[in-house]
Amino acid sequence: MGEQVGGGRFVATILCLCVSLACAGLGSPLAPVMLQSGDQPRTALVHVPFWVSTPAPLVIVLPSDATSPSPDALASWQPLFGQDTVLAFPTGVSVGFPDRDAAFLRTLVDHLDEQVGIDRNRVLLAGTGASGPVAWYASCFDARTYAAFAVAGASMNAELRERCAPAIKRPLIHLAAPDVETRRWLLDSRQCGDFPTARPRLATGPEQWRHGESFACRTTPAVEIWSCDDDCAELPTTELIVDYWTRLGALP
């Protein structure tokens, strides 16, 4: 069964469950899209503004608990639902198999490009919590698919740091508990300066995470690091990610 979404230009596969941001008290439609990736069907909830007439940026938000995105997670991205931005929320990740997720995300990007006409130079990927390793993996082995990355509540493991060899090094914002090894690797791999060129600041919140650090780098426009508690629950993660991507020029 098909349904027209996005001014009749995007044909989505509708699953038996009708999902909308109204469930989160927002009222903007999300269409479940099912695609074959490898030997398994995979699903994402996709929002395409009906007024979009030119290629728009695509923001892919991976779920923090490796399953479906929560209403709170959807609500946190509400500001982008009123912009010329396509959003996709995959409904699960393969814990321990980031290569499978990376393959599905490429399939999803290709599908949305074919059906919607997204801006392939402004595809953005955010991974938080349990899905953070997928974003790290994509930044290492599928960097050409994306313009920038965001990772929250997840450090990069030593094994991946050793294997990471991106074809191109993209901007990245990292929000997590202080991690010397990930920080050093991130700055060294992108040839960033040792000292921040700017310190973005939050007006409120515990002093230990009210200041971010932005670094100028030789191989990519900028790397930004925010320190927080283990799960970054009190940090306005989405707001900081959107602000960073907007300053890069990737979002309207």
Secondary-structure map:
Blueprint (H helix, E strand, L loop, with lengths): L1 E4 L4 E4 L17 E7 L2 E8 L10 E4 L9 H6 L9 E5 L7 H18 L7 E6 L3 H10 L6 E5 L5 H6 L8 E5 L3 H10 L22 E5 L5 E6 L9 H11 L5
Short description:
The chain has helices at residues 71-76, 98-115, 132-141, 158-163, 180-189, 237-247; strands spanning 2-5, 10-13, 31-37, 40-47, 58-61, 86-90, 123-128, 148-152, 172-176, 212-216, 222-227. It is an alpha/beta fold and 252 residues long.
Description:
Helix 2 packs across helix 3 (132-141). The longest helix has 18 residues, at 98-115. This protein has a single domain, classed as Rossmann fold. With 252 residues, the chain is α/β, with parallel strands linked by helices. A 9-stranded mixed sheet has the order 3-4-6-5-7-8-9-11-10, with helices on both faces. The protein is globular and about 45 Å long. Helix content is 24%, strand content 23%. Strand 8 (148-152), helix 4 and strand 9 form a beta-alpha-beta unit.
